[in-house]
């Protein structure tokens, strides 16, 4: 892995009361909608990213997943229905905190799931940016998600619904 791909663990803050999302680069973004459920937090907000203009995400502490739909701009569409970050999530009152553990899943509903950024996980551990225990947990989370999604016809939402976490989207 090249040094250019090595990066610190990405952290974000989701302030439900203030309706803001502080992204990994420290930019505070306004949020259109937050919805708190017993199993997680839903967020919908505009994005000023060159490739996508809107972002919807669910933070799911119990399975250790952040499930997102990126609304891509014309010409930047990707062959994915859901993008999943593996990580840890903590709640402090109305503020949620996320810590990304490098591994990502790309879900193509009804067709398959791929695991991405394994090289980043190993590089992060080697550089001391992620504890080995957190990396091991991330691998277990990713493998459990791949198995669960596959067992539900490669439908991530169906798998999570079966776990008692029915997701809804805009």
TrEMBL record:
Residues 27-154 form the DUF402 domain. It holds the Pfam family DUF402. InterPro entries: DUF402, FomD-like_sf, UCP012622. It comes from the Bacteria. Gene3D superfamilies: FomD-like (2.40.380.10). This is DUF402 domain-containing protein. It comes from Rhodococcus zopfii. The lineage of its organism: Bacteria, Bacillati, Actinomycetota, Actinomycetes, Mycobacteriales.
């Amino acid at each position: 892995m090249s040094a250019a791909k090595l990066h610190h663990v990405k952290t974000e803050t989701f302030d439900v009361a203030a309706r803001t999302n502080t992204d990994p680069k420290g930019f505070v973004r306004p949020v259109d909608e937050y919805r708190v459920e017993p199993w997680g937090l839903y967020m919908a907000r505009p994005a000023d990213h060159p490739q996508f203009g809107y972002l919807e995400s669910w933070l799911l502490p119990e399975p250790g997943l952040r499930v997102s739909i990126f609304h891509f701009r014309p010409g930047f569409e990707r062959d994915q229905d859901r993008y999943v970050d593996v990580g840890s999530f903590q709640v402090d009152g109305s503020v949620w905190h996320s810590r990304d553990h490098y591994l990502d899943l790309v879900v193509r509903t009804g067709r398959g799931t791929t695991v991405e950024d394994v090289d980043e996980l190993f590089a992060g551990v080697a550089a001391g940016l992620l504890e080995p225990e957190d990396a091991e947990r991330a691998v277990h989370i990713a493998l459990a998600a791949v198995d669960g999604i596959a067992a539900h016809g490669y439908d991530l939402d169906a798998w999570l619904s079966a776990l008692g976490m029915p997701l809804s989207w805009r």
